[in-house]
Q: What sequence folds into this?
């Protein structure tokens, strides 16, 4: 980490806590700043604020009082989730007080190289693949994961040395507040239409995504999905060297699929069937990671080793185990119909599906073709059980059963499976009717699968 004095004795406001806010406040304190943190949650219910107060940091909780702007702050570090419509942010900008994101602060003290990954889908998997590939390159320094993947960049940056690289997942919320952040390699996996309620319009969303490349120069690289004409046109906005990746083989000037193999600039890297995590979306993620790894000088053996062994990011079509010739996958992150469609289309073998969850007021007709093509049996849980059962009946799924919770659904799914089947948790719904979050739901699935496996061995 660089030793900078920019913030010595400067009054700085950290707006919003959670992991990134706590981490930013601690780093700023280490840099000699006079830090105030402000969080909407009341102090008595706010263990993060309580801990920071014990560390000597001023805390203001229970709301966002506009009077804070009278305290002469030189800078505001904003939690990514807080929109620009927040009165304090609007007031700060009107007073010409700079507002930055937590990754921007981390970049200011970064000693090593930054690789930044953004996109509507595939960010976390691509970020993880890149980190694993670069870390296998024994001739280089360490590669560290950071950012929207759940590890604050301001925490990670403190251990990054000159020869290291920080592989950072950057959300559109983070990128909206970019000022000087400049990845040596930027990756855009794809851009669809997400979070429009926060950004206000698709135009704003795309603009904020493209901030990942706005400070890049001709010495840098932009790795971008080439399988959409809009994304090709967006690449014209960068000053960096453009390295395309294409599952459709639309460009051979980067990473691409041709037939059953993945290539980089004409060099064969790996067979598609050798990639451990299934699905066309993971072919795209692999291509993006291959491009970054090759630019970074990573040998093919390291790239191939990772792609052959990486079982997926937890809760995202995550390979759990194989026993009695059934493969078990945890896709608890599939909290909407589209995610479950992607998961089902990832498999060529019959699927016993576990699905269901929070009723958000919609039905599931869109899943009928995918049920018909892929699902041999379905086990349903949660508020949407009957709605999903209606779709399964329309699709002609021969076995439809109901369970109380995921732990009960797993042995039922096993009973309906035969050798070479896939047992898949992909709920197509949020978890909040029965579980605090999708992670706890996925963990229950993994535990139930492990218990089932141990019971069969006993």
A:
């Amino acid at each position: 980490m660089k030793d900078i004095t920019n913030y010595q004795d400067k009054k700085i406001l950290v707006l919003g806590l959670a992991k990134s806010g706590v981490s930013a406040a601690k780093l700023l304190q280490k840099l000699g700043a006079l830090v105030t943190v402000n969080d909407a949650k009341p102090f008595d219910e706010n263990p993060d604020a309580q801990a920071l107060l014990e560390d000597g940091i001023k805390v203001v909780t229970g709301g966002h009082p506009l009077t804070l702007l009278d305290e002469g702050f030189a800078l505001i570090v904003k939690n990514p989730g807080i929109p620009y419509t927040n009165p304090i942010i609007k007031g700060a900008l009107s007073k010409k007080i700079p507002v930055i994101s937590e990754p921007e602060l981390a970049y200011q003290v970064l000693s090593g190289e930054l690789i930044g990954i953004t996109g509507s889908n595939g960010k976390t998997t691509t970020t993880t693949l890149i980190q694993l590939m670069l870390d296998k390159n024994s001739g280089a320094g360490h590669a560290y994961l950071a950012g929207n993947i759940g590890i604050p960049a301001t925490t990670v940056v403190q251990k990054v040395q000159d020869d290291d690289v920080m592989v950072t997942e950057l959300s559109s919320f983070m990128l909206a507040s970019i000022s000087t952040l400049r990845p040596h390699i930027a990756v855009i996996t794809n851009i669809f239409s997400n979070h429009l309620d926060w950004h206000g319009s698709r135009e704003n969303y795309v603009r904020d995504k493209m901030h990942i490349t706005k400070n890049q120069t001709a010495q840098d690289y932009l790795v971008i999905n080439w399988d959409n004409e809009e994304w090709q046109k967006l690449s014209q906005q960068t000053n960096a060297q453009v390295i395309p990746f294409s599952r459709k083989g639309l460009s051979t000037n980067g990473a691409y699929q041709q037939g059953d193999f993945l290539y980089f600039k004409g060099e064969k890297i790996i067979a598609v069937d050798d990639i451990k995590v299934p699905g066309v979306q993971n072919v795209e993620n692999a291509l993006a990671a291959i491009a970054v790894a090759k630019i970074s000088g990573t040998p093919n053996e390291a790239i191939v080793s990772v792609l052959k062994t990486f079982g997926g990011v937890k809760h995202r079509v995550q390979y759990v185990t194989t026993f009695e010739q059934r493969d078990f996958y945890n896709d608890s992150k599939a909290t909407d119909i589209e995610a479950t469609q992607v998961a089902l289309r990832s498999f060529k073998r019959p699927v016993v599906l576990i699905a269901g969850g929070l009723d958000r007021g919609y039905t599931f007709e869109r899943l009928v073709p995918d049920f018909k093509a892929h699902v041999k049996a379905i086990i349903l849980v949660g508020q949407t059980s009957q709605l999903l059962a209606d779709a399964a009946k329309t699709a002609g799924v021969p076995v439809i059963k109901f369970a109380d919770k995921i732990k009960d659904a797993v042995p039922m799914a096993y009973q309906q499976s035969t050798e070479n089947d896939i047992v898949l948790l992909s709920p197509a719904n949020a978890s909040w009717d029965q579980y605090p979050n999708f992670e706890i739901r996925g963990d229950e699935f993994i535990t139930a699968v492990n218990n089932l496996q141990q019971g069969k061995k006993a």
Notes: The domain at 318-457 is CATH 3.90.190.20 (Protein-Tyrosine Phosphatase; Chain A). Residues 224 and 244 are 5 Å apart (CA to CA). The mean pLDDT is 95.
